[in-house]
Amino acid sequence: MALKKQAYKRKPNTYVKKKPYVEQRKPNIPVKVEALADVIYFKDGMTVLDFAEALHRPVAEIVKKLMFMKILASQTQTLDREIVELLTMDYGLELKDEVKTDMTKFEELTIEDDPKNMVERPAVVTIMGHVDHGKTTLLDTIRHSRITAGEAGGITQHIGAYQVSRNGKSITFIDTPGHAAFTEMRARGAKITDIVILVVAADDGVMPQTKEALDHARAAKSNIIVAVNKMDKPSANPDRVKQELADLDLLAEDWGGSVPFCSISALKGTGVNELLDTIQLVAEMMELKANPSRLAVGSVIEAKLDKGKGPVATLLVSNGTLRVGDAFVVGTTYGKIRAMNDDLGRTIVEAKPSTAVVVYGLNDVPMAGDAFMVFADEKQSREIALKRSNRQIREEKGVNKTMSLEDFFKKAEGNEKVLRLIIKADTQGSIEAFKGAIDKIKVEGTSIDIVRSGVGAITDTDVSLAEASDAIIIGFDVRPQAAVRDTAATKGVEVRLYDIIYEALDDIEKAMKGMLDPVFEKKMIGEASVRETFTISKVGTIAGCMVTSGIIKRDSLVKIIRDGIVIHEGKMSSLKRFKDDVKEVKTGYDCGIMIESYNDLKVDDVIEASEMQEVKSNA
Ligand code: GDP
């Protein structure tokens, strides 16, 4: 009952003037709504006023009733359970003890909705399958059909999900092909997909990732529809696909099974409408429903730190309605929704069940797959988020969060002085060399624990692991991508990048002796991405670039990074805007870059610019 009160207490939001509430949304309490009508919930310290409010009766009336019971009470007087029970009986109602629910574990709650509030909701669909079988093409074709169908205003934005409508009904597609996103979300407890479209190329058949996708879809208990793609190819052999899937116990409807198979050409668009019809048919049979008249719950599809706008997240509303002004908890952070955009970049004020929206107003960047829930106000959201983040820290092996090489010695003043490292390098050789050398560093009372080492770029997984195990990430000739670097910065994970093993060893040894005192450090100042290349004889290769972050200066030191690995280091030989030589180019601008004695630039290479900067001592 106490919670029900909040629904009436909702503060008017600024947009209310423009668009009045059509319906009041109920807060998320795992209690049957109809039960509230004739039940009063007792809570410790219940006052006369609380009771009157719970009953929706005037306080004076309750005071009078108490007087009849020879109890003289003011409205702030607390009442014993027996007295409350007598009063409740007097009104012909039932008294129950308040359901104590740990709202900090909201993703574990089962929310019961009043069936009369339940309405049909769009299906949420994920496209999976082997690489190159056409997942991206299919997503694009479906999205494109929507635009040409004359959707009013806006240009599609990549927000990680989009909605199309067919026969007057919507379907929501999760636009993150690749199984990693799906598994990641599932691993974090998010069940967001109702239907999985398993794309299998008719000219290639079942491949390893087809099986993997099938395993994921089955484990998630999603309904499966098979899209047999590339039917336009002369070598297409749909029967082979059917046979190979039958061998994996996925039997097509026309072979006596229960799985719909659709023959399509994602490239030409043939069969795609039929696929959409099939999705709607399956969705209808699943009787997907949600209650728009409650505060929203759902999960994060994507999240990032936007330089101008702060933390930005795409949320999928699984139940309830999300509105601008709502205070909510997501993962271990919280926020108040300042603004929302849909997948066409349009400003919206509310999002109904099964829709994905970009929200602004978070205090931190959540992780994909994190659950969110709207609460009555920002204060409650903040408290719950704090409890959740404290719990997470406790659960993470009781180690202090975040660590930096500089404060290793200061932090490690206890008994155990363990420096935990995650090592990423461009070759196994570098890792072995580093490990061998590090074994030789002997500083009394300290030790080094290599939590993970591996070849390749620094990834989100490395950052998560570093965060969980209080480790520092050391990279040799590898770089984190911008998004990963942002995550590391947000989480306070230190990423140290080196080109020379000796320098890393030196820093580590100094840190262990408590004497790390960097004076100058090479600081990255900006990044540019190669969009096209031109080769001019006798001059060399000019890379047409876009500065994607920071600033690129004519006299910067540069590194060329391909697929997260440093492939060249050197200097720039020219920096131009159009035909003019320039000293610097800022984020968002095109420029032409030439690298001194290096002509092997390729599209999508990243040019990282850095300069020597004085580093403030931590002491
Ligand atoms: P993904 O890795 O599963 O996302 O696959 P893509 O969508 O990137 O497609 C891989 C390649 O197959 C691309 O060259 C597409 O143009 C091509 N492709 C996708 N669908 C079709 C199709 O229906 N017919 C033909 N002929 N090619 C297709």
Biggest sheet, open or closed, and with what strands and sense?
6 strands, mixed
Q: β content, as a range?
A: 25-35%
CATH architectural label of the largest domain: 3-Layer(aba) Sandwich
Provide mean pLDDT, rounded.
82
Structural class, from secondary structure content?
Answer: alpha+beta
Strand order of the largest sheet: 5-6-4-7-8-9
Query: Which term fits the overall shape?
Result: globular
Low-confidence stretches: 1-22, 30-36, 397-401, 409-414
CATH fold title of the largest domain: Rossmann fold
Q: How many domains would you count in the coordinates?
A: 5
Bound chemical compounds: guanosine-5'-diphosphate
User: What's the number of helices?
Assistant: 15
Could you name the CATH class of the largest domain? Alpha Beta
Ends: how far apart? 54 Å
Query: Can you give the helix content as a percent range?
Result: 25-40%
